[in-house]
Amino acid sequence: MVVRTRTRSELSRQRRPRPHRCWDHLLVAPLWPLHGSNLGTLLRTCDAVGACLVVPPFRWVDEAVARGNTLRRPGCVHRVGDPVRWLAAQRAAGTKLIGVELAEEAVRLGDLPAARERTVVVLGHESDGIPEDALDLLHLVVEIPMVGAGHSLNVAVAGSLVAYKVAGLL
């Protein structure tokens, strides 16, 4: 077998058949971030899957996103005020809300279907998870199975895996 790598121009032509439209189909929402380094990683993933990143409007969050942005151009980042109120408005507008959380009712990542409608992937606090009042708004909870000793993955890794799956790229 002969392996030929693709050039950057070939990749660019393939990956963006149409311009990205903000708030279009998929949003990744780490609404209770603890570590700024995760936000830059999630912004890169959002670009890869054609999603927008939704964050709370804390000054340190803006700085972390800017510091972690390795895209060489602005990423699609939106700031929302009260996370629970924003999620309630999204649900009322018909958007599907999928939380990444360890829960008895959770669907395994491998069984999660690709999004067929506007979807928000909700990510909680690295230590405390998604708050109770936000959990009540979710349509679905997804869990990432683990074999090792850790209880969970960090927000950037978990969010990236779920975003790829929901985008239909895995």
Briefly characterize the structure.
By secondary structure, the protein is α/β, with parallel strands linked by helices. It has six helices and seven strands, in the order αβαβαβαβββαβα.
Characterization of the model:
With 170 residues, the chain is an alpha/beta fold. It has a single domain (21-166), classed as Alpha/beta knot. It contains six helices and seven strands. The protein has helices at residues 8-15, 37-49, 59-68, 83-92, 132-135, 155-166, and strands at residues 26-30, 52-55, 77-79, 96-100, 107-108, 119-123, 140-143. The protein has a seven-stranded parallel beta sheet. Strand 1 (26-30), helix 2 (37-49) and strand 2 form a beta-alpha-beta unit. The longest helix has 13 residues, at 37-49. It is globular, with a radius of gyration of 16 Å. This is tRNA (Guanosine-2'-O-)-methyltransferase. Residues 36-164 form the tRNA/rRNA methyltransferase SpoU type domain. GO terms for molecular function: RNA binding; RNA methyltransferase activity.
